[in-house]
Amino acid sequence: MAVTFRQLQHFLVLSQELHFGRAAQRLNISQPPLSASLKQLEETLGFQLMDRSNRSVRLTAAGAVFSEHAARILGQLDAARALAEQQAKGAAGTLTVSFVPSMLFRNLPHALRKFEESYPSTGLDLHEMNTTRQIEALQQGEADVGFIHAVPLPPELVSHRIETERLVCCVPRRHRLAGRSRISISEMAGEKVLVFAREFAAHYHDRIVALLRAADVEPYTPYRVQHWFTVVALIAQGMGISLVPYSLSRSSMADVTYIEIEEAHAEHEVHMIWNKDLSSELTGVFTRFVQLHGLERVPSA
User: Fold this and answer.
1) CATH 3.40.190.10 is the classification of domain 91-162+270-293
2) Domain-by-domain residue ranges, the chain?
3) Strand 50-52 vs strand 57-59: parallel, antiparallel, or unpaired?
4) Sign of CA dihedral 113, 297, 151, 203
5) What is the torsional sign of CA 166, 169, 172, 175?
6) CA-to-CA distance for 86 and 95, rounded, in angstroms?
7) Predicted confidence (pLDDT) per residue in 91-105, tens digit
8) Rg (Cα) of the chain, in Å, rounded?
9) pLDDT tens-digit profile of 96-136?
10) Taking the domain 5-85, which CATH number applies?
């Protein structure tokens, strides 16, 4: 039996998520067909692609190699289809994409560049905005697609989960906790714990404050800062510590250290959103591109 493109797609998404439930949700199928697809693919290939147990799913060495090549094959197929479709339908124009600043460290620039390479007749108009402002822009038709920290949305906006991201503790490099690899949130007690001002992203702010207060840690509120970058810059100068998104650890900010958090619920989601009532053909092309590839492993065209 030959390997099918559907099996490759199922396996690729599963290799990215390493979780049957999330992969099935992303593929819009139930878990049993996904499990059956993986089993059939392994039987056809004659070797195991994944080790799975009740608690975890991970790629085998062979699975990691196969995943890389599957991504390349599907990317080439999708690019060929997209370019042919663009030629046939004339998909062109300008797409306004908004994003929270931390998306710069979640591989968004690479994904945008690959989209432009796949659709050379389109242009991207990029706008940095906080989550609240993005929702307003999408409602008013000022933006086509946004990348936000997950919050409750008005009914006309739809979303696609990009990733579930861990929160980590950011401390100055010479802080008492800096040598630790993992801590509980309660160990941040007694410190000046910085959080961006609530007015800039109320739901996200409340989520982090709730995590802190559940561990009897009180946030320090006199500093009215807007961006995570400002929070980290203050920490680098020894002016406090904070719970920050893991993606910030990929930045080149010096004089800070990032520490894993023990609490399983210390995480948040990042979503792509768009307005279903104002969606254009180009919006659909872009959102399908991101839904297929995600941001972490966008293949070359």
Assistant:
1) yes
2) 5-85, 91-162+270-293, 163-268
3) antiparallel
4) negative
5) negative
6) 15
7) 568 999 999 988 988
8) 21
9) 999 998 898 888 999 999 888 888 888 999 999 989 899 99
10) 1.10.10.10
